[in-house]
Amino acid sequence: MNFYNYASPATFYPLAGKLIPWFAVLAFILTIVGLYIAFFVAPTDFQQGEGYRIIFIHVPAAWMGMLIFVIMAFWSAIGLAWNTRLSFVMARALAPTGAMFTFVALWTGAFWGKPMWGAWWVWDARLTSTLILLFLYVGFMALQAAIDDTRRADRAGALLNLVGVINVPIIYFSVVWWNTLHQGASVSLTRAPSMAQAMLWGMLIMALAAWMYTIAVALARARTLVLERERQTEWVRGHLEGQP
Amino acid sequence: MNWDSWQAFWAMGGFGLYVWSSFGMLLLCIAGEIGLLRRHRLQVWQRLKSMKSWDMQ
User: Fold this and answer.
1) Are A244 and B52 a contacting pair at CB < 8 A?
2) Which is nearest to A70 in space by CA: A207, A215, A188, A169?
């Protein structure tokens, strides 16, 4: 069996169906462990008190919001280059989840900012560029929904995705490039994290849970998209005899 | 253990409103996303099924 066969919708569909429950269960277990650490193991912050516990969802949500847009751009690029049907499906399937995480990052940021900064919102570079990311997600989905021809919709969305992805490094480095009210990164790949071990672990496990959730939900959404797009094929017609 | 009682847990040291509004919104979003996903799948399934029976005639 050739590896490239997985790029065929007829192979992808049942495989995704088998994988989704595993990712869902992993997401659930990791969330329980992550929340336990977040509320019962991680100590009270000496500056921010208990209010800092919002970061256990704020940071993973912000990471996912940025990462999903990059992963979408990867699929969009492959789709545009090789015209593979499943690539566009993956980009489309990821968008609502990316938008959801970006919205949650902004929302939790506001509910952290109010008690800590005294403001729900400030127009600083980090916050503004993240808001633009949310608009990019919404624009991507609206654009694709507005074009009836699936192929053209896919290509238009992919183009917006590839241009818009420039915003992600801007978000990431905004706290370095500009003097932002938003604090700099406490966790980075290049140096030791500047936070307590339990806090770091709680955050990383929540981030992993967000990954598993994203994979499960995106695969589920991709399956429905594949059904719609392959409705003329024998295998979908046969499959429709079963249960949804 | 960080909390002496459930009351202290829900109060979050005075940050209860902010902490639970944040976690609550995430829960709402996840529940909403899964709900919409399910509904959409059922709608697509029904539509494709009726299209298929239309084709058969």
Assistant:
1) no
2) A169
